[in-house]
Amino acid sequence: MKSENFEMVAKTFQGLEDVLAGELTRLGAENVTPGRRMVSFTGDNEMLYKANLCCRTALRILKPICKFTASDPDTLYDMVKEMDWSSLLSVDKTFSIDPVVNSDTFTHSRYVTYRVKDAIVDYFQDRLGEGRRPGVRLQDADVMINVHIDGNRVTMSLDSSGESLHKRGYRVAQTEAPINEVLAAGILLKAGYDGQCPLVDPMCGSGTFLIEAAMIAANINPGVYRRNFAFEQWPDFDEELFERLYNDDSSERTPYYRSRHIAQSDCDCREKHQAGRSRPLGRHTDQADSKVGRGSRRRHTRVQSPLWRAHIGRRHSIAVFHHRQPPQKCVQRLSCLDYRLSG
Length: 343
Description:
By secondary structure, this protein is of the alpha/beta class. It has helices at about 15-25, 45-55, 75-80, 110-130, 180-190, 210-220, 240-245, 270-280; strands spanning about 5-10, 30-35, 40-45, 60-70, 95-100, 135, 145-150, 155-160, 200, 260-265, 285, 300-305, 315-320, 335-340.
């Protein structure tokens, strides 16, 4: 039975909103509207599950449940306490609160967390008695509540993702400062990479670009390696529907270039070893060589994150070479994309 449509918000990095909007549109989302570091859209529970499973450039998927205005912390407390929390939580569940605050009135996000937590706890204790309340858990809570305050406008949302979606679940080990998986996938998609030509990363580090490229090439959903999603703890979770979507591999494909489809290299043997341990698609990768490397006349995409060790915590410059002609003729087609890495 198909559920009713509702509003959702997909969070992303600034600069990737158009890529994420395209992903959601292809998945069948309706009313797709890009904003700043987010894309709003509508859909049903199936769309919610697909967005978490399939979107490469989404950091998390939120489901707004209430919007109101609050001029002070006491009003915030009263409005939150009036919500029907019994339909979302029970005394045997745990919850956490993630505040995002941009307001002259609410200047401390931690205080917002305390007031919202108190309102939810008091809601249950007033109805069920002292001590009868859901527990608070900072990590891995059953229900994650996002509180977004812009001025005096408050949006309460359920976080359907749980851990940020950049945590794909495929890493066995990683280097000191791997590039965020969502950012890596977004750079590849913005560069036009679709898996139809070889890709080379001569500074592979822990192999994030390689792994994301391999998953794009084989059209493997980025969420299939995750242990769980937060929506699996919701009262209306449709396990049968989710299992059908999770196990559907009908859209997966064999990459066009079977031989040396994705090539890697790194001057640090330890980094290269970590990349090898993390690859979910090792059969599509190999060490970079003369067939797809410097001076090659075979069209290919080269992507690299240079000098990352010297820029930990600073601005990163990602150079993407998209070769549709022999590399020596493509110097003018260099596209430098600057992003500030966060989180």
